[in-house]
Design brief:
Layout lengths: L7 E5 L3 E3 L2 E7 L13 E4 L2 E9 L2 E6 L1 H6 L7 E7 L18 E11 L2 E8 L12 E4 L2 E11 L2 E8 L1 H6 L10 E6 L1 H15 L4
Antiparallel strand pairs: 1-3, 1-7, 2-3, 3-6, 4-5, 4-7, 5-6, 8-9, 8-13, 9-12, 10-11, 10-13, 11-12
């Protein structure tokens, strides 16, 4: 489990082909790998990945073809958001994040607005029931609060206000219109939708 509070930015070296997937070597000089061991989980741009090797301030992960088909940005070099798995007793400063990407969205707007930044992402229709005003969403691993939701035939437009600190310490600073991002819905919303579907369809409640 994770919180969506990014602990460091890393940089992916040139990916290595691994069957239908890829092996990634990630430079993470500020993440602090002293307490990380092989088999541990690290969220990379919001996707939970297993550490398969560690050397100095770098670690490696193997991304399967299935993971590549459900995510974006895990098959190329460049900056990534990193978060180590939550430990029992840690503070939950963001929201409960599983590291399982629910869908890929597309950036429509990324622009400065007063002292902050205005981000608009179009999420796929399948995620629409889980997106709500003042609810939580994870974008490339970053826990964010939704300021506005607008349903359209092409998907749901989610508007988010980014404070300067969030932009400074994450890779969101690099986003531009047309970019693709990994999205994860709020876990609580997932369970609420499930309970409501049983109530309506099967009369179990």
């Amino acid at each position: 489990m994770f919180t969506g509070i990014i602990q460091a930015m890393g940089k992916v070296r040139e990916p290595e082909k691994l069957g239908d997937g890829v092996r990634l070597t990630i430079d993470a000089p500020t993440l602090g790998l002293e307490d990380v061991k092989i088999g541990d989980s690290i969220a990379v741009n919001g996707a939970c990945m297993t550490v398969v090797a560690i050397e100095g301030t770098t670690f490696q992960i193997e991304v399967s073809a299935e993971s590549l088909s459900k995510t974006t940005g895990l098959d190329t070099w460049g900056p990534v958001n990193l978060e180590k798995a939550l430990r029992v007793g840690d503070r939950l400063d963001g929201h409960i994040v599983s590291g399982h990407v629910d869908g890929v969205g597309q950036v429509e707007v990324m622009e400065p607005k007063a002292e902050s930044w205005h981000l608009v992402v179009r999420a796929p229709m399948k995620l629409s029931p889980y997106l709500a005003y003042k609810g939580s969403i994870t974008v490339n691993g970053v826990s964010l609060t939704i300021n506005e939701v607008q349903d359209t035939p092409a998907g749901t437009r989610v508007s988010i206000n980014l404070i300067p600190h969030t932009v400074e310490v994450t890779t969101l600073k690099h986003l531009k219109p047309q970019d693709w991002v990994n999205l994860e819905i709020d876990t609580i919303a997932r369970y609420v939708e499930r309970m409501m579907s049983l109530r309506n369809d099967d009369g179990l409640f």
